[in-house]
Amino acid sequence: MSSRTAFVTGASRGIGRACALSLAAAGHKVVLAARDLQKLESAAEEIRAAGGTAIPVSLDLSSEESIKQAFAQAVQQAGPITILVNNAGITKDGLALRMKRDDWESVLQTNLTGSFLCIQQVMQGMMKERWGRIINVASVVGESGNPGQANYVASKAGLIGLTKSLAQELGSRNITVNAITPGFVDTDMTAVLSEEVRQKMLASIPLKRFGKPEDIAGAVRFLASEDAGYITGAILKVNGGMYM
Ligand code: NAP
Q1: CA separation (Å) from 25 to 15, 74, 106, 187?
Q2: Could you give the CA distance from residue 11 to residue 147 in angstroms, rounded to a whole number?
Q3: What is the pLDDT of residue 1?
Q4: I need a labelling partner for 105 at 20 to 30 A (CA). Which of 95, 111, 150, 170 fits?
Q5: Which domains does the chain have, with CATH numbers?
Q6: DSSP state at residue 204
Q7: Residue 62 CB–ligand 1 contact under 6 Å
Q8: DSSP string, 103-130
Q9: Is the separation of the CB atoms in 148 and 105 below 8 Å?
Q10: From CA 110, how far away is CA 62, in angstroms rounded?
Q11: Residue-level pLDDT at 2
Q12: What is the pTM of this model?
């Protein structure tokens, strides 16, 4: 097993935290990035307690300056980043008719532009190493659409297009670019949904349970591994069968 440096955005909680723990368990050094440094520190402690290496860095995807600083700090402390997990994401739901432009733009900025800028930060280093894994966490709704989430869905569908384009641009450099489309996963993001909505969703999931952050982390860990070396431009559904 070769040890590499992985950078995980949104690693302070939910899916990102599970990805960071899983990549550390696979033997990689992990840079954990998000806005809340205190929460990152607690995730980092868990990794260190298990014998892994964790480096928390402050990152705000809505600021290009913050992105540049976070990657500079990460490379300085952990060496070249050859695994990037673009996981951080936000929702600002509402019907399109009443959606404020700010809510449209901030979701696109964080989920799509932020991910693109993170990729730009690691591309050259990966080319130099002649090895790279870029994994974008999109969403089932980026494939299916969803009323009340035009901004979020556009950002996630954008990530899918970005994944396929960059898989073609970077393939000759031995850099794979893939996306994962999670279904309904139990995290802070979905905790706000009503019991009625949850039950309706559950009925549409063939596996009859919601996803756990670890379900997504397992797929991320696989796509980051040597075993996934011939997979690029793939959109891996991890959704319990809710959308096929
Ligand atoms: P979550 O529990 O809400 O966690 C979001 C993470 O992103 C946090 O670590 C948060 O940390 C970070 N983040 C938010 N805004 C940020 C910013 N501007 N800059 C840097 N970091 C930021 O979300 P989750 O449910 O784990 O979702 C993770 C990813 O999976 C998201 O992209 C989401 O769209 C996708 N997804 C989730 C589900 C689901 O059912 N949960 C389904 C499909 C796709 P700070 O607040 O400290 O910055």
Answers
A1: 15, 19, 33, 21
A2: 28
A3: 56
A4: 170
A5: 5-237 (3.40.50.720)
A6: T
A7: yes
A8: HHHHHHIIIIIHHHHHHHHHHHHHHHHT
A9: no
A10: 5
A11: 76
A12: 0.98
**Over its length of 244 residues, how does the chain's per-residue pLDDT go in tens digits?**
579 999 999 999 999 999 999 999 999 999 999 999 999 999 999 999 999 999 999 999 999 999 999 999 999 999 999 999 999 999 999 999 999 999 999 999 999 999 999 999 999 999 999 999 999 999 999 999 999 999 999 999 999 999 999 999 999 999 999 999 999 999 999 999 999 999 999 999 999 999 999 999 999 999 999 999 999 999 999 999 999 9
Closest CA to 87 of 225, 223, 241: 223
Ligand 1 atom nearest 40 alpha carbon: 47
Query: Side-chain half-sphere of 106: how many Cα atoms within 13 Å?
Result: 10
Let me know: does 136 contact 179? Beta carbons within 8 Å. yes
Grouping H, G, I as helix, E, B as strand and the rest as coil, residue 181 is: strand
Active-site residues: which are they? 152
Of all atoms in ligand 1, which is nearest to the CA of residue 36?
47
Residue 15 near ligand 1, beta carbon < 6 Å: yes
Angle between helices 64-78 and 114-129 (to 10 degrees): 30
Q: How far is the CA of 88 from the centre of ligand 1 (A)?
A: 4
Q: Do 9 and 30 touch, CB atoms closer than 8 A?
A: no
Where are the strands (E) in 27-174, listed by range?
29-34, 54-58, 83-86, 132-137
CA–CA dist 194, 202 (Å, integer) = 12
